[in-house]
Design a protein that fits this description.
Elements: H1 2-72, H2 77-82, H3 87-92, H4 94-106, H5 111-122, H6 128-143, H7 155-164, H8 174-192, H9 196-202
Helix pairs in contact: 5-6, 5-8
Length: 235
Amino acid sequence: METTLLFFSQSNMCEAKEKTFFKLLHGSGKEETSKEAKIRAKEKRNRLSLLVQKLEFHEDAHASRSGHLAKERRVSPEEAVKWGESFEKLLSHRDGLEAFTRFLKTEFSEENIEFWIACEDFKKSTEPQEIHLKAKAIYEKFIQTDASQEVNLDFHTKEVITKSITQPTLHCFDAAQSRVYQLMEQDSYTRFLKSDIYLDLIEGRPKRPTNLRRRSRSFTCNEFQDVKSDVAIWL
């Protein structure tokens, strides 16, 4: 009798252990399946996020290209025609100034317009320290002998500027700016009006790559000695 009871007791214990084992095994499988599902879901979210980013990138790139094309086409032929009426009208228009600068770069003479722009900015200075620093920078870049972008000025004009640069005023570059203006108006401007850059604009043609040409002979200021400097053109 005792042997029978011991047998059933051992059988029940084995059965209980087996049930516990299968529960653990089954539960572990569920846990493993749950982890795999989470990993797959995370991978899907990452792929979706990457796809959205790519779409946004292409949309931004398309918008940027569209904006760039719109910027290039904003000059109407009617507006460009007005630039041929006078040099003053050309420089007073932002797009006219940009087109003329682009033309000067093809002739390797962009230092003239850059000097003119620097002088216009300089005359807006208000603080003494700002006046001094900008005057020094303009002198070193455009005026002094062997400057990186030295403009073509007569000896007398350069000498006057050199003597006044230690105590500059808002008008210390007026004479030089006026002379460079005359050079561009009577030399570069006439060629600009015959250039492909300008003709393309007045005829509404798209912008084309510009070819650099050998630098032409620039007039010297001495050739304009009979021309009176008109500082009022800056006002």
